[in-house]
Amino acid sequence: MNPYLGEFIGTMVLLYFGNGVNAATTLKGSYAQNAGWLAICIGWGLGVTLGIYAVGGISGAHLNPAVTLGLYAAGEFPADMIGGYVLAQMGGAFCGACLAYFHFLPHWKATEDAAAKLGVFSTGPAIKSTSANVLSEFMGTFILIFAILFIGANEFTEGLNPLVVGGLIIAIGLSHGGTTGFAINPARDLGPRIAHAVLPIHGKGGSNWGYSWVPVLGPLAGGVTGAALYNFLFNDEVSLFLSAGVIFFAIIVILSLLENKKL
Predict the structure, then answer these.
(1) 77 dihedral zone (left: phi>0; alpha: psi -120 to 50; beta)
(2) CATH topology assigned to domain 3-262
(3) CB-based contact 123:180 (threshold 8 Å)
(4) What confidence tens digit (pLDDT) does each residue in 143-190 have?
(5) d(CA 255, CA 45)
(6) Which of 220, 188, 193, 198 is nearest to 209 (CA)?
(7) 99-109 pLDDT per residue, tens
(8) Could you tell me if 140 and 177 are in contact, meaning their C-beta atoms sit under 8 angstroms apart?
């Protein structure tokens, strides 16, 4: 299989399960309605695990532009394949969200809350604080990429690596996901947000495009910084990515402190 097709399929699998557990725990009439945050985090973690099992041997199963850019920053992925991977991930995320929509077709009309319907597809802040929201996405993706790289440096029994990465997603969701819904993946948020905008969802309301840049910028910056720090600590390699990431982190921390002082 072509690696770009692999990324498309793997990301579609991820979003079918991820948006699916969001729908199951949110939409009215679902047996799983109100199952809670633990169910959501486990559903996303297993979705990542299954996406990796599906195409890990074909494309490396990045399933996330932040992973692709992070691996490039770590010197482990060629620049000329970045664009194709990102487009494949975006397309797979869009299609996975559409599959979840069709799976729960009767439940959209039964659910009156437009914000809850949007939350099935894309993320939003628990407390709106733009700088702090960017910081949360930066930090969540930073530890995601940093941990993926040090997980890869260990030897596991053959076939267990995807389960470990899935466990990492669950840990991030449980520990840090309560602030912004832990997008930690630009394709995971933007692809389904586009699906929300174009699908004929009954009473759906707006797609909150004003927030849409946060789960794109934060994860991309955090992913590159996590990979660059790993290279510095474990491979003794210093890069401009690390310097830029540290500067970005410092600026966003200062802005977050200033913004929240006013709240």
Answers:
(1) beta
(2) Glycerol uptake facilitator protein (1.20.1080)
(3) yes
(4) 999 999 988 766 555 577 899 999 999 999 999 999 999 999 999 999
(5) 31
(6) 193
(7) 999 999 999 99
(8) yes
